[in-house]
Design brief:
With 249 residues, the chain is an alpha/beta fold. Helices cover 41% and strands 16% of the residues. Helix 1 links the parallel strand 1 and strand 2. It is globular and about 45 Å long. Bound molecules: guanosine-5'-triphosphate and magnesium ion.
Length: 249
């Protein structure tokens, strides 16, 4: 894998936002300037050889801004492994104190980045929840909402993870958290990636906290969710529960 090395000299970087992408050119073009408007924040795009030129756009933004890093992977390999590769890159190539997960499709509004950073003062992982204050999801069809709600209830019942939104994908990790978990032990690749990583962090005894976010369904580009991803989450929570049942915290 190749990528760009650290740009910033002297002052440690406050945060890096890791964004996995498949065909998100139009979204990325608008999203990156909004993220870079936040001081002390850089972006890492993990692109799986998008056919719409997302990777080329990311390279151009890297050159133009000096605050964008790009990891190119040869083919679509799932967003779970994209995050793992992105985290490893962020740990070895930057000195970022905080490492974010974020989707490229504006479901995760960059306006919340300062709220996350504020919440990190007394937490090791902050999760942006769609269910902390009722239901704050805009434009989802009812069936999608029901699947998400039931999935959350089910995964919480099996794992006991104390979060209102266990499949949430807008998150911020303290650097030390990612340094202290075994990233190679994570094998989930879809929704269950989000459940698994929060579960491991919580089981290790780190402080996990939620803040409310309003989640807006994508308006540009196509969803990459498949039935396979949903089914992976259904069985994976049991394997998580059993794997960690006898493990030390
Ligand atoms: N690198 C990489 N990125 C991916 C892959 N699958 C999805 N993504 C990205 O992961 C993020 C989340 O994917 P989405 O399709 O938005 O999934 P979602 O948000 O759960 O589903 P929707 O609400 O339908 O959009 C987006 O930025 C995608 O471009 C993958 O296999 N590799
Ligand atoms: Mg999305």
């Amino acid at each position: 894998m190749k990528g760009r090395s650290q740009y910033r000299k002297g002052k440690p970087l406050k945060a890096i936002v890791v964004i996995p992408t498949i065909n998100e050119r139009e979204n990325l073009e608008r999203l990156i300037p909004e993220i870079l408007a936040v001081d002390g924040v850089e972006v890492l795009i993990v692109d799986d050889n998008s056919s719409d030129g997302t990777g080329t756009l990311a390279d151009r933004l890297a050159l133009e801004t000096g605050r964008v890093h790009v990891l190119h992977r040869p083919m679509r390999m799932g967003f779970g492994t994209a995050y793992i590769d992105g985290f490893k890159y962020a740990l070895s190539n930057t000195d970022a104190q905080y490492i974010f997960e974020m989707d490229a499709d504006f479901s995760h509004d960059p306006k919340y980045l300062p709220d996350f950073l504020e919440a990190m003062h007394d937490a090791d992982l902050v999760v942006g929840s769609r269910y902390l204050k009722g239901i704050s999801i805009v434009n989802w069809p009812l069936n999608r909402l029901i699947i998400s709600k039931m999935g959350n209830w089910y995964a919480r019942a099996v794992t006991r993870l104390p979060l209102t939104d266990v499949t949430a994908g807008f998150k911020c990790f303290r650097r030390e958290v990612l340094e202290n978990i075994d990233l190679d032990s994570i094998h989930s690749n879809g929704y269950s990636f989000q459940i698994e990583i929060s579960y491991i962090v919580w089981k290790k005894g780190f402080r996990v906290k939620e803040i409310p976010i309003v989640f807006v369904d994508r308006t540009i580009g196509e969803s990459k969710i498949t039935y396979g991803i949903v089914w992976e989450a259904v069985w994976r929570v049991w394997s998580l529960r059993f794997k960690h049942l006898f493990a030390r915290k």
